[in-house]
Each structure stands twice: as C-alpha cells, then as structure tokens.
Specification:
The chain is built from 9 helices and no strands. It is mainly α and 184 residues long. The model has no long low-confidence stretch (mean pLDDT 90).
C-alpha cells in the first residue's frame, strides 16, 4: 500500500473515533477500511500432488464427459498399474463420486465397470469404499455431507445397473439407509 493511502486511512480512522457519527456510517467506514487494508492471515495451503495425481484428477473430475469417456478408459488402462501410488490415487478418485458432476456419475460407473475386466481386486476395493462411505455418512448424520451421500448412493445404483453389484448388496444398503435413525 502506498504511503499516501496509509496516511489517508489513518486520518479516516482518527476522524471516525473523534466525530460522532451513526452506527451505520461507522460500519460503512470500517468495512471500507477492511476492504482496502485487510488483516494479515496465513494463506490456505494447497496439497502437494504429484503430476500423476493431477493428471488422474483432471481426467476424471474435469475432462470426463459422454463424448470422451472411452478415451479416458484407455488412458487409465495405460497407466502403470504395477505402481502402488497409481493404484492408490485411482482408488481415491474412483471412490469419491461427490467430486464428479452429478450427471456424470454414470460415466464413473462405466469406467469402473471397464476396469473390472482387468483389475477385479481394485474394483472390489472401490465398491467396498463406497459402501463404507455410505455407512460412515449415515453414522455422522451431518447435513453438510448429504449431497456427497446422495452421490455415493447414485454411484452404487449405477454400479448395480452395470452388474458390478448384486441385488442383496443394494437391498442391504437400502434397508440400512431406511432403518438408520438418529434422535434429532
């Protein structure tokens, strides 16, 4: 901030404290000063992600749509599946349907179904994670996670549509959702 602006703000603060002005005008001045000279605070730390992690997130969260999901499947299959880091990242990304656009959740299920042919254990882990996240969401009963839970249930339903999950799992999950109660 320039010295001239700093002296102007000091003058404004002194006049505000000396003169008798209304509460509304006082708030306007305080808001203007806050806007011009905000208090110092720490910046939000960004997570350090590897280029592979950023690439996978970009593929699934940003680029995935109806026209290019087959290309995305091919690119995911080309990744180095022997590396534990790649498998862990894919597991995290495919287990979080709440971060995908709601209309693209079925594409996430298609990708998961396409990977089942080549990596059965991996897909079973993803489905297990989804079921676990649904149960944890029911146990927490926090309204800010409702949208995430709806996305997880829709993802589970889409996985059922693509024959990745059997009907007893769906019925057990539905029963758990309907009978899980809270005192609130």
């Amino acid at each position: 901030m320039s010295p001239r602006m700093a002296s102007f703000l000091d003058t404004l603060k002194r006049k505000k404290s000396v003169q008798h002005i209304g509460q509304q005008e006082r708030m306007l001045i305080e808001n203007a000063v806050y806007y011009v000279d905000p208090p110092m605070r720490a910046a939000i730390q960004q997570k350090e992600r590897t280029p592979v992690h950023l690439f996978i997130r970009k593929l699934i969260y940003s680029d995935m749509n109806q026209r290019n999901y087959t290309r995305i499947i091919k690119q995911i299959r080309r990744l180095h599946w022997e590396e534990a880091e790649v498998v862990t990242i894919l597991e995290k990304v495919l287990s979080k349907p709440g971060k995908v656009k709601y209309g693209n959740i079925y594409l996430l299920a298609i990708i998961t179904g396409a990977l089942f042919r080549y990596h059965q254990d991996f897909v079973v882990t993803v489905i297990d994670n989804i079921l676990e996240y649904i149960v944890v969401g029911l146990e927490q009963n926090d309204f800010k996670f409702n949208q995430r839970r709806i996305a997880e249930v829709k993802y589970l339903a889409e996985l059922y549509n693509f024959r990745m999950v059997d009907h007893p799992v769906i019925f057990d999950t539905m029963y758990r959702i309907m009978t899980f109660g809270h005192g609130k």
